[in-house]
Amino acid sequence: MLEFLHICALGTRDFELYPLKETPMTSANLSPIPELYVSYDSAQKLKMEAADLPSWDLTARQVCDLELLMNGGFNPLKGFLGEADYKSVVDDMRLADGQLWPMPITLDVSQDFADSLEAGQDIALRDPEGVILATMTVSDKYTPNKSHEAKQVFGADDSAHPAVNYLHNTAGPVYLGGPVVGIQQPVHYDFRARRDTPNELRAYFRKLGWRRIVAFQTRNPLLLAHQELTFRAA
């Protein structure tokens, strides 16, 4: 992009704005992103086979993570982080191969479910209504140091922080890592007109001939000051 906004502040990893070095736009910026979905015919066959696999019922948060993995929103990730990638991201904000990745994308599960699995085993990932969305090959099964994760990712191990509270009191004690094979998208009943995938947005940008795209993410509704900063950066 001609201008891009770096949105990860050192330490807290909260979102801030400052310009990076200007670089020319290349076709790769708008080229399709690899997705993790299989073809329709393969998906129907895989869904039948997955019905007999051990399955994990995803939380609403996990459904969101899985959706972004499958539609390329979390590219270059091919699944939930294994232990080596997890530790590298927590400590250095990079995957084990050196690619920048600021926050761990993990599948937290119960101890009992984790104990029932072995490395290399396939599992089905279901939404809260029991629909199989994907399968996953379990490559890693590990117990994270959540206090260390909280300090590194959120800046403090303080349960007053909503994300830290979730980490300690809601998330499961064991993380599973491994590649994901997408069967179908999650079904949403709200904001359907606003749920564009990364590839749908890129196609839209190409259609309009846009060469400069600025993205800004905030935890709160966009305020006028944020809006003005975004407009000026664009």
Shape: globular
The CATH architecture of one domain is Roll
Measured between the Cα atoms of the first and last residue, the distance is 10 Å
Using only CA atoms, what is the Rg?
A: 19 Å
Tell me the name of the CATH homologous superfamily of one domain: Sulfate adenylyltransferase
What is the average per-residue confidence, as pLDDT, rounded to a whole number?
A: 88
The assigned structural class equals: alpha+beta
The residue ranges in which pLDDT falls below 50 over 5 or more consecutive positions are: 1-12, 14-25
CATH class of one domain: Alpha Beta
Kindly estimate the percentage of residues that lie in beta strands according to DSSP.
5-15%
- Count every beta strand, where a strand is a DSSP E run of 2 or more residues: 9
Structure in words:
The protein has 234 residues and is α+β, with helices and mostly antiparallel strands. The chain has a domain at 33-195: Sulfate adenylyltransferase (Roll), CATH 3.10.400. The protein has helices spanning 40-50, 60-70, 83-92, 111-115, 146-154, 162-169, 198-208, 224-233; strands at residues 5-6, 18-19, 55-57, 79-80, 107-109, 122-126, 132-137, 140-142, 174-182. The strands form 2 sheets. Strands 3, 4, 5, 6, 7, 8 and 9 form a 7-stranded mixed sheet that branches. Strands 1-2 form a two-stranded antiparallel ribbon. Helix 5 (146-154) packs antiparallel against helix 6 (162-169). It is globular, with a radius of gyration of 19 Å. The model is unreliable at 1-12 and 14-25 (pLDDT under 50).
